[in-house]
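your task:
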Amino acid sequence: MEEADLLNQTTSMKYIWLRGLSANQKVQMTVFALFLTSYVLTPIGNILIVITIIYDRRLHTSMYFFLSTLSFIDVCHSTVTVPKMLRDTWSEEKLISFDACVTQMFFLHLFACTEIFLLTVMAYNRYVAVCKPLRYMTVMNWKVCVLLAVALWTGGTIHSISLTSLTIKLPHCGPDEIDSFFRDVPQVIKLACTVTHIIEILIVTNSGLIFVVCFVVLVVSHAVILVSLRQQISEGRRKALSTCAAHLTIVTLFLGHCIFIYSHPYTSLLEDKVVSVFFTTVTPLRNPIIYTLRNEDTKNALNKFMERLEGRAKK
């Protein structure tokens, strides 16, 4: 059959089989415990951050508006993959319908790309707060924050639609097995029964351009911040450095995974699985841990919120 005829075919594959992480029962139990712990703690921690920010009026600033958005995205991000992985851990037939696979890929890239844009916006917000403190409330007013939020969600949606559309247009007529524990564009592309080099280049270019632009903005903004901090008093410098360190930690963990997965040929590697496990289970927990433990304002607001809840419970 000619390649042109293949491209005109509709997707004939109805289900995709997953190999998972391991066939070893002990490994599966460990994986299940890891996934379950993550999925329980991630919503609790991130939702607690959102409620605390809403509760304390002193945290009603652009910085904490974006932080609450980040927490919301992390809850959604983990929900896209972890519940299915929990079920598959104990299932002998780890399969998913092709339509559900495409849906999962769409939302996975929607939340991932939106988070990258959000981290970049948060870096710009920190730059304005440190380098232009007198103009901060004017530059980062609520109207600007809402517009930036709309822009980053729109950008994430466009990115996700473009990657998903490139994938589903390919003729998928077998093989129907993925050597992974969740569905992503690189793995699904390998199931196509046609040459995919051009599609792979387009996807790497699309994702790579986003990573590079965001990375440059992040590096430049933090470099300017560090230079500006040399002129500030010690207390203000310490607080700003703590916030920047927390943000850089999150950016490193998140972008590090994206760069690793999309910067090498689309092959099935054990390292890919390990990095993906970290990305899907550990990374969404970073906000409650990193931002809460390193941010005095958030810790104080959280303590007051918990004390108020305890007071109500005693009554």
In short: The beta strands are 15-18, 95-97, 177-178. DSSP finds twelve helices and three strands in the chain. The longest helix spans residues 98-131.
